[in-house]
UniProtKB/TrEMBL annotation, chain A:
PROSITE patterns: RAB, RAS, RHO. Keywords: Nucleotide-binding. It comes from the Eukaryota. The keyword Nucleotide-binding applies. The keyword Nucleotide-binding applies. Residues 142-157 have a biased composition (Acidic residues). Residues 132-161, 205-245 are annotated as: Disordered. This is Putative RAS small monomeric GTPase Rab6. It comes from Coleophoma crateriformis. InterPro entries: P-loop_NTPase, Small_GTP-bd, Small_GTPase. One of its GO terms (molecular function) is GTPase activity.
From TrEMBL, chain B:
This is Vacuolar fusion protein MON1. The keyword RNA-binding does not apply. It is found in: Endosome, Multivesicular body membrane; Prevacuolar compartment membrane; Vacuole membrane. It is a peripheral membrane protein. It comes from Coleophoma crateriformis. It holds the Pfam family Fuz_longin_2. Residues 561-661 form the FUZ/MON1/HPS1 third Longin domain. The lineage of its organism: Eukaryota, Fungi, Dikarya, Ascomycota, Pezizomycotina. GO terms for cellular component: fungal-type vacuole membrane; Mon1-Ccz1 complex; multivesicular body membrane.
């Protein structure tokens, strides 16, 4: 892993990001798409957690994401606090073809709001957009492919969506979360999620960037209001450019 | 052959309980014996009992089938007359040595459980005091026999105790070779020049090469690892799936004592539910009468059962493995489950609710269980010998690597390992704690076989329980991978070894801690270690060694007729072997070879057999197994290799291992 950000002309800072969500919703696939721009069919479940880094270039600064990709299985849940404890941002992922995964995602959001650093930026992400019919709208030649792979969906029309965009979006607004629907398989919206998070991270929490331990103090209660305020900005942005809804 | 699992329905009255089982199993032998459902007893096997001073009992068996017309009778065997106790009935001798498996408990320290008493890797063997400095087998051999007795003691039920008594007579490697040579180097295999001119009799014929008489064993083995589709909702495809299901050579089932399915290698729940019910009924019936069922045979299929607390494990095999071997495979699956849950959690789950569905807590580990199962089905020398393989390095080079690890060591480190493609490069450990091969087997399986960790990229932080170390709690393992091919020397292409998969060139740094918060500390240590290794050139050495791969048999012993061998050093619990190239490339040849090794291993470890040397001739190969308190040795040559030449080759290999001992094995290891 390249970890020398030293020579960057723009100010550069590390942001710790944690991915949470039910098993098999595509957390690792989102990360793999973001970090390596790659996708693996039938990826094996993550064991424990994987730690990856990826830089995200913003106009004014460079954000180096330190990503904790956690395993979704129930038995690893007790380890989660270790990963979100000092995180400045979190990606809570659900599978938009699986209603229980949104319930699980809501639990994670609640736990983060209760236990994580107060200023944490949370993005709610509905993954597997490729399994729905809607991908065709933004001129997507891979539509057929997406339909062919709808193995898990029961819906004969090829649209396996079980969670409407409106439902998830209204929940996200209520809780002040960033919201995206993505496809790790096709790459839809994946970078957008991370860019939006990078934009939403308040400057103040970037001060002591290097050590994640030190960051917490900076990201403390003071940053709270600011982050909530700044959330609205990027989200509007995001829904314009990214969200296919 | 009605060897499908359904056969168990009709033949369940065939069930034989372990202790008095002796004659029923028709073990599938890979040299074509599987086709002979009854014929095994008719095989004209010749057995020579040659009681020799210092060598113990020596059996040489020559198998020939009377159903093949073209093979000429064996040459006269001059020394037959010298063996008064030669059994006269072929049936009698068959029960004596061809079916060792049925008596199986793991017989020696080779089973994964027993092995744990031998601490890894320096031979300092935990409970009794051997100086850690003891390095090579020479010094071990020069010790009094007393130094070996603890091992015999530890293998509670092994035939190994007998070994210790006559240790001195053949312990030293070099001396032993003479014995073997003299034993086998008679003119028994003298052949006329005309005979030798027959091309089919040429020494250059390789094992398993002549496939004209190829039997149906291992037919369609290529499909063994194909997934069976799930039963569709209407059950319309059930017939077809059942056919696929029955075509598998190997099944592993795990169920709870309440009859809930937990894991099955093949088939989804709808397909296996019926079998689970039958199996559960069978096992419970014998459990109820306090006389547990250990295994039974239906047609050519062997069923072996392993009960661990609330869990029932069943291995169903048509590959002719012995009961002990199958049982140790089941134990490994059990260890994998423990590694996920820990023993207290498992016990707690079932004591609270005996009908717990364990699939949920185990969610996501099916791939680990399956890759473990597939490793066994493909045939793994490591699993067979319950030993580890090391990357061959010079002693001084390994010393530098060890020291680099030791120097970078952080407070929180418990074990530190560098592993290249499943072969150990270096290990550092606390003085008090050894690392158990069974634990390492689980780790290597997770990292190099299952692929889930590697595929994610990045660094990993994995909670796991190492049952051999402590089955009550979790340890935390830091893992990062380096590729042997990602450095500046990218220009040179990979060696064209189709047999070697990607796992062969992955180098992993594993740092294990008991502290769950120590990720960043261990990450720092890893960075230090890697940069230091790069600075002092060790990384290049490791990469070069990985790229080079295993030497071929011909590299080790030029001109030898041996095609492959396994050498296990008992004291180090490590083994070494040459490359599978060029003779055993691919799934099928490798499985055939492993079948052969399985048979040799089973026979030499059979209870009461006291075999020291086993020379086995079959239509498609000649093989030799040789067991001493210091090592176990198995080798294979083409069907026309003479005894003398194979013995000569064996001696050469053993001399080579002795010469290279501190390179092919990690002796001593690095302790802090």
């Amino acid at each position: 892993m390249a970890d020398s950000t030293a020579a960057a002309p723009k100010p550069s800072s590390s942001v710790k990001l944690v991915l949470l969500g039910e098993a098999a919703v595509g957390k690792s696939s989102l990360v793999l798409r973001f970090v390596n721009n790659d996708f693996q069919e039938n990826k094996e479940p993550t064991i424990g957690a994987a730690f990856l880094t990826q830089k995200c270039n913003l106009p004014t600064r460079t954000i180096k994401f330190e990503i904790w990709d956690t395993a979704g299985q129930e038995r690893f849940a007790s380890l989660a606090p270790m990963y979100y404890r000092n995180a400045q941002s979190a990606l809570v992922v659900y599978d938009l073809t699986k209603p229980t995964s949104l319930i699980k995602a809501k639990h994670w959001v609640a736990e983060l709001q209760r236990q994580a650093s107060p200023g944490i930026v949370i993005a709610l992400v509905g993954n597997k957009l490729d399994l729905t019919n809607e991908t065709s709208e933004p001129a997507d030649p891979l539509n057929d492919d997406g339909d062919a792979d709808t193995t898990e969906g029961d819906d004969s029309s090829g649209d396996a969506r079980k969670i409407s965009t409106a439902e998830a979006k209204s929940y996200a607004e209520e809780e002040g979360l960033l919201f995206f629907e993505t496809s790790a398989k096709l790459g839809t919206n994946v970078t957008e999620v991370f860019t939006a998070i990078a934009n939403a991270i308040p400057e103040t929490s970037l001060k002591g960037a290097r050590g994640p331990g030190a960051t917490q103090a900076g990201a403390g209660s003071g940053a709270n209001d600011q982050s909530r305020v700044s959330l609205t900005g990027p989200r509007d942005n995001a829904s314009k450019e990214g969200c296919a809804c | 052959m009605g060897s499908s699992p359904t056969a168990s329905r009709s033949s369940s009255n065939n069930c034989i309980r372990q202790p008095n089982a002796s004659g029923q199993a028709s073990q599938a032998d890979d040299h074509g014996n599987t086709t002979m459902t009854v014929g095994e007893d008719q095989m004209s096997a010749e057995e020579v009992e040659a009681p020799q001073e210092g060598m113990g009992a020596v059996k040489a068996t020559v198998e020939d089938r009377d159903d093949d017309g073209y093979r000429p009778p064996l040459p006269p065997r001059p020394n037959l007359s010298k063996t008064p106790e030669r059994p006269t009935t072929p049936g009698g001798l068959n029960t004596s040595h061809r079916r060792p498996s049925l008596l199986s408990k793991p017989t020696t320290a080779v089973s994964s459980i027993d092995i744990q008493t031998l601490s890894f890797p320096d031979g300092s063997r935990g409970t009794f005091s051997t100086p850690a400095s003891r390095s090579v087998s020479e010094s071990a051999a020069l010790d009094t026999p007393g130094s070996m007795t603890p091992k015999g003691k530890h293998s509670q039920n092994g035939s190994e105790g007998d070994d210790t008594t006559s240790l001195m007579s053949y312990a030293p490697t070099m001396k032993g070779t003479g014995d073997l040579a003299s034993l086998l180097n008679d003119d028994i295999n003298a052949q006329s020049p005309a005979w030798r001119l027959l091309s089919s009799k040429a020494d250059t014929v390789n094992p398993f090469e002549a496939i004209d008489y190829e039997n149906t064993s291992l037919l369609n083995f290529e499909n063994e690892f194909n997934e069976i589709a799930p039963v569709d909702s209407k059950g319309g495809n059930e017939e077809e799936l059942l056919t696929q299901f029955k075509a598998k050579y190997k099944h592993y089932l795990c169920l709870s004592s309440a009859g809930k399915p937990i894991y099955s290698r093949h088939g989804d729940q709808n397909l296996i539910n019926g079998y689970i019910g039958i199996i559960q009924t069978l096992i419970s019936f014998y459990e109820g009468s306090k006389d547990p069922l250990h295994g039974f045979t239906a047609g050519g299929t062997r069923f072996v059962i392993f009960i661990a607390g609330p869990l029932y494990f069943v291995a169903i095999s048509r590959l002719g493995e012995s009961d002990a071997q199958l049982r140790s495979q089941l134990e490994a699956l059990y260890m994998q489950i423990l590694s996920t849950l820990t023993l207290p959690t498992l016990t707690h789950l079932f004591s609270n609710r005996p009908n717990t569905d364990l699939r949920r807590p185990l969610e996501g580990t099916e791939t680990l269980l399956s890759s473990l199962a597939d490793t066994f089905t493909k045939g793994s020398p490591s699993a067979l010998l319950s030993a580890l393989e090391c990357l061959k390095l010079r002693k001084s080079q390994r010393y530098v690597i060890n020291n680099t690890l030791l120097k970078a060591r952080t407070e929180k480190l418990l074990y530190g390992l560098i592993v290249a493609g499943g072969r150990l490069v270096s290990v550092v450990r606390p003085k008090r704690h050894s690392l158990h091969p069974s634990d390492l087997q689980l780790i290597f399986n997770m990292l190099f076989e299952a692929g889930g960790v590697k595929a994610g990229g990045g660094e990993n932080w994995i909670p796991l329980c190492l049952p051999g170390f402590n089955n009550r709690g979790y340890l935390y393992m830091y893992v990062s991978f380096l590729s042997a091919y990602d450095d500046g020397q990218d220009g040179e292409e990979r060696p064209s070894t189709p047999g070697s998969s990607a796992r062969e060139d992955e180098i992993a740094v594993l740092l294990i801690s008991a502290e769950k918060e120590s990720f960043y500390e261990l990450k720092q240590m890893r960075d230090d270690v890697v940069s230091q290794l790069e600075k002092n050139g060790s990384m290049d050495i490791i990469k070069a060694a990985v790229r080079q791969g295993r030497p071929s048999t011909a590299d080790i012993v030029p001109g030898t007729q041996l095609r492959h061998f396994l050498y296990k050093s008992r004291a180090n619990v490590q083994y070494t072997m040459p490359s599978f190239n060029p003779y055993f490339n691919g799934l099928l040849p490798q499985r055939r070879l492993m079948n052969l090794y399985n048979n040799l291993h089973a026979q030499i470890h059979a209870k009461h057999s006291h075999l020291k040397v086993l020379h086995s001739v079959s239509r498609d190969s000649v093989s030799l197994a040789w067991s001493t308190p210091l090592f176990e040795f198995y080798c294979v040559a083409g069907p026309n290799a003479s005894r003398a030449s194979i013995a000569h080759g064996a001696n050469k290999v053993i001399q080579w291992v002795k010469r290279e001992e501190e390179r092919v094995f990690i002796i001593g290891g690095a302790v802090f």
